[in-house]
Amino acid sequence: MRVLMLIVTMLLTLGAIDAIAPALAIADPIPAQINNKPRVAITKRSQHSDKIESKDKGMALLFWAFAAATIGGALFVVTRRNLIAAVMGMVGSFLGISAVYMMLYASFLSVIQMLVYAGAIMVLFVFVVMILNRPEDEPVAPTGRAGQAIGGLAIVYLVGRLIFMLMKVQPPNPATAVNAPAPVELPGDIVGTTERVDWGSVKAVGWDLFGPGLFVFEATSILLLIAVVGAIAIARPLHEDQDNQSEPRHTPRDEAAHADAARKVADAEATTGGHA
Amino acid sequence: MSDILFNVGYGHFLVLAALLFLIGTAGVMIRRNALIIVMSVELMLNAANMTLLTFSRMWGDLSGHTFALIVIAVAAAEAAVGLAIVVAVFRGRRNVDVDRLTTLRH
Fold first, then answer.
1. How many CB atoms neighbour CB B33 within 10 A?
2. Number of domains forming the structure of chain B
C-alpha cells in the first residue's frame, strides 16, 4: 500500500513536470527543432525488412501498455505477501520488458529475455518457492513514521529530478533516430562480398559477440561453470545428520513424510504463536 | 501532454528503466524475505539492461546488445548461486528472514 502511494506521488510529480514543460520548451527552442525534424523523416518507408515505424499512435499505446505491465508486475513482486503471486508478477514484468526490447529493435535480446528469464529463471524461482512453502508473518520491515516520511519525500524528489533529466535525453543523430535502424554490413558467405542483416538480429549480435566480445564470452562460460559448481556445493547439505547416519538409506518418501511432519509442527507453532 | 503521451522517445524508455530500478531498490530495502530480495535484484539488473539497449539503439552501436547478453548470463549465474544460498539457509534455520539472519553459522 505504501509503495502504491509512492508510485501515485511519483506520477503526480511527473504531471507537475509536464505542466511546466511548455515554458521550458519555449525557453530552449533547439530541442523542439530536433523534435520536429524526424517527424518529416518518418513518413519515408525504411528500405529493409524492419517495417516497425513509430509514426502511429498505436506504437505509443503499445508502449504504454507494456510499460504498465512491466511496472505493475514489478510492483506485484515488491508488495505481494504470497510468494507465488510475486513470481507470477515477475513473469508478467519480464514479458513486458521483452516487448519493450522489441520496440528498441533488439529482437534477439527480446527472445533471449523471454526464454532465459520468463522461462528458465522463473521456473527456478518457482521451484525454490515450493521448497520454502512458507508465507511470511510480516513481509515489510517496520521503520519509524518519521523515517518513512523523510525517505518517501527524498525518493519522490530524487525520482522527479531523475525523470525530468531523463525525459530531456536527445539522440545524437535525430534524423535517423526515429526510423528503424540501418542494417549492418557484414562479410558475406563468399569472400569479398558483403551482406546486409537487420540491426539487432541474431547474426548482427553474433558478429559483435564473437568478434570484439569473444574474450568476454569465454569468461562468461567459465563464470557459468563456476556458478553451477558453486550452487551445487552450497545447496548440498554440509554434513549428514547424526541420527541419519545410523539409519539405513533414506527413501524419498521418508524424506517427504519427514518434511511434512516438520512443516505441520512449524505451522502449529506459528498458529499458537499467533494466538499468544 | 499529448506530446509526452504519443511521441514516445528515448526518454520514455530511460524513465521506464529508472522506475523499474527504483522498484527493485525499494524491494531490496523494505522486504525481509531473501527470495523476494533476489527477485528484486533481478529486476534491477533488467532495468540496467533496458538502459543499455536504449543507449545502444540511440547511438546505433551493437556493443550494447553484447553487453546486455553478458549481463543476462551473469544474472542467471547470480540467480543460481543466490537461490542455492537461500535453500541452504532455509535448510539450516527453517526461515529466510534476513532480519533474523545475524550469524554465519546455524
1. 24
2. 1
